[in-house]
Amino acid sequence: ATVTGTPLTVTADPTAGSIAPTSAYASSTITVTGTNFIAGFACTAKVGATPSTGTSATCTYASATTVVVVIGATTPAAASSVEVTFTNGAKVATVAGTTLTVRAVPTAASIAPLFAYAGSTITVTGANFISGFACTAKVGSNVPTTSTAAASCEYASATTVVVVIGSGTPA
After folding, report:
1. Beta carbons of 45 and 57 less than 8 angstroms apart
2. Residue range 96-109, pLDDT digits in tens
3. How are beta strands 55-63 and 66-70 bridged, if at all?
4. How many alpha carbons lie under 13 Å from residue 164 in its C-beta half-sphere?
5. Global pTM exceeds 0.90
6. Contact 104, 24 (CB under 8 A)
7. How many CB atoms lie within 10 A of CB 1?
8. N or C terminus of the chain: which is more exposed, having fewer CB within 10 Å?
């Protein structure tokens, strides 16, 4: 039997070029950039020191060159690799070997001083703060629903973040 009139498109296997960011927390989003990602193929991802046995992650096709991966909440903090697999019927193509550092989730243990005026600086002490990561803070009596955003939040060390209370923060 001959099938005519139905075009068949053969594509190259997907390849990974890079990920961004290369350092992230569990439950955060990373972008895998590469080539030949195909819409409609099932996309799965794993993150771990040995990705084939790593923690499952959510994988979403964004374009022929971009896949968005949400790192699993239980992924341990460690140097890891990302493995993305596209499946369509019996065809499986795996993208692997990209280095990612999964960081321990930051925790806040205390603030000082406990009383401050708008415009004052307070210090948040905790663990796992990382230079270069976005820092936001809210100050108010009903955090986080109706709080006033702080004027600034800056990394000071792995255990300290400095927050300047916004001038519009109510007493």
Report:
1. yes
2. 666 788 888 888 89
3. antiparallel
4. 6
5. no
6. no
7. 2
8. N
Question: Dmax of the chain from CA atoms?
Answer: 83
Nearest Cα residue to 106 out of 77, 134, 127: 127
Q: Which two tokens stand for residue 164?
A: 């300047």
Residue 8: count other Cβ atoms within 10 Å of its Cβ: 5
> 82: which 2 tokens?
């990302």
- Per-residue pLDDT reduced to its tens digit, 22-74: 888 888 899 988 888 888 888 888 888 877 788 888 889 999 999 899 998 88
Range with the poorest average pLDDT among 5-9, 85-89, 143-147: 143-147
Long-range contacts of 155-158 (CB under 8 A, 24+ apart): 155/129, 155/130, 155/131, 156/123, 156/129, 157/129, 158/127, 158/128, 158/129, 158/130
Residue with tokens 């004052």: 120
